[in-house]
């Protein structure tokens, strides 16, 4: 397994950020690097040397430490470099083989990555490999995806991001019980019989922990029901599905130039109101004669003066109300 952070994968990393959303994310990012779900090269694709140094703009001593250790520049000199110059220096050192992606990621501390990098971008890096799509035919990748999936759920529970009750409710007991082997079902029954009080969701997930769930429940089901809605979306690591704005897609013309679709409404749309009838927002505030509500006295007076009875409008509109007030 890859050890991009330079720490043995068997040594668990526990964030120093305390329990909660930030600590969880720091641990997940470090885990995906340690087990080889993502590599240091992948990290630098998402977060270039320039971006890393810019993220540490408020930490000149930290920038100097990284630059000094990786490039050989004296720390006092490195301390004088601006974030932009520090990024250029680090990139040159990387291009010339003076340092490596692994060394850069190792010195960019896990908790600092979480503190100073954009949360959504960091989560996009964490899940870029789409572990929920891993296939059993690729045994190594599938085993790694199972380990990673179980770890995310375990650390989410430990960091109080999600409860046992929420997980069990999301999975649907009847469905995931169908995936469990008889041996595990027997353990659940045995554990429930030994309980003198209520057998809770926590008892269930203690008997069948995430590491066991990931072995028997389809990974895409775990991601779709637990990780994405209860963790990624609920705690703003990723935008909620269906909530993102529509992205304009360019079209390439025959001459090779690119046409970007206009973000303005079409000419037809420009002439239409929200009801699609062609009226504008100003028109909505204009009250027609037939929209004015007549009083009973006015109706009687008009009826006596005319042979045809006046038709009284019964509808009530915001525009008519405004007319009365004026």
What is the gist of this entry?
The protein has 326 residues and is mostly helical. The protein contains 20 helices and two strands. It starts with 20 loop residues before the first helix and ends with a helix.
- Could you state the order of secondary-structure elements as H and E? HHHHHHHHHHHHHHHHEEHHHH
Q: What does the average pLDDT come to?
A: 80
The separation of the N and C termini measures 77 Å
Number of helices: 20
| Structural category | mainly alpha
Low-confidence stretches: 1-10, 244-295, 303-326
Description:
With 326 residues, this protein is an all-alpha fold. Among the domains are: 21-129, no CATH class; 162-233, no CATH class. 56% of the residues lie in helices and 1% in strands. The protein contains 20 helices and two strands. The protein has helices at residues 21-34, 40-46, 49-55, 60-71, 75-80, 83-95, 101-107, 110-116, 119-126, 139-158, 164-171, 173-179, 182-194, 201-207, 210-216, 219-233, 267-270, 281-284, 296-305, 318-325, and strands at residues 251-252, 258-259. The protein has a two-stranded antiparallel sheet. The longest helix is centred in the middle third of the chain and has 20 residues, at 139-158. It is elongated and about 70 Å long. It starts with 20 loop residues before the first helix and ends with a helix.
């Amino acid at each position: 397994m890859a050890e991009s952070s330079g720490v043995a994968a068997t040594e668990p990393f526990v964030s120093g950020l305390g329990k909660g959303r930030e600590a969880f994310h720091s641990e997940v990012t470090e885990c995906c690097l340690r087990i080889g779900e993502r590599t240091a090269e992948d990290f630098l694709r998402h977060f270039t040397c320039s971006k890393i140094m810019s993220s540490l703009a408020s930490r000149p001593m930290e920038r100097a430490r990284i630059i000094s250790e990786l490039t050989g520049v004296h720390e006092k000199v490195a301390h004088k470099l601006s974030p932009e110059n520090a990024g250029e220096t680090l990139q040159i050192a990387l291009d010339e083989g003076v340092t490596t992606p692994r060394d850069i990621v190792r010195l960019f501390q896990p908790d600092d990555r979480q503190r100073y990098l954009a949360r959504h971008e960091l989560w996009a890096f964490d899940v870029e490999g789409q572990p929920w799509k891993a296939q059993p035919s690729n045994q190594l990748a599938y085993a790694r995806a199972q380990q990673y999936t179980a770890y995310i759920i375990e650390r989410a529970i430990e960091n109080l991001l999600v409860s046992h009750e929420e997980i069990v409710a999301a999975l649907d007991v009847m469905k995931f019980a169908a995936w469990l082997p008889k041996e595990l079902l027997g353990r659940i029954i045995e554990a429930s019989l030994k309980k003198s009080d209520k057998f809770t969701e926590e008892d269930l997930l203690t008997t069948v922990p995430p590491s066991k769930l990931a072995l028997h429940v389809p990974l895409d089901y775990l991601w779709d029901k637990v990780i994405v809605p209860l963790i990624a979306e609920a705690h703003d690591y990723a935008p909620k599905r269906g909530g993102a704005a529509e992205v304009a897609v360019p079209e390439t013309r025959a001459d090779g130039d690119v046409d970007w679709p206009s973000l303005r409404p079409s000419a037809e749309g420009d002439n239409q109101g929200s009801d699609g009838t062609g009226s504008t927002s100003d028109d909505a505030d204009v009250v027609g004669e037939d929209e004015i509500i007549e009083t009973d006295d006015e109706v009687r007076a008009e009826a006596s003066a005319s042979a045809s009875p006046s038709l009284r409008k019964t509808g009530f509109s915001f525009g008519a109300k405004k007319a009365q007030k004026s």
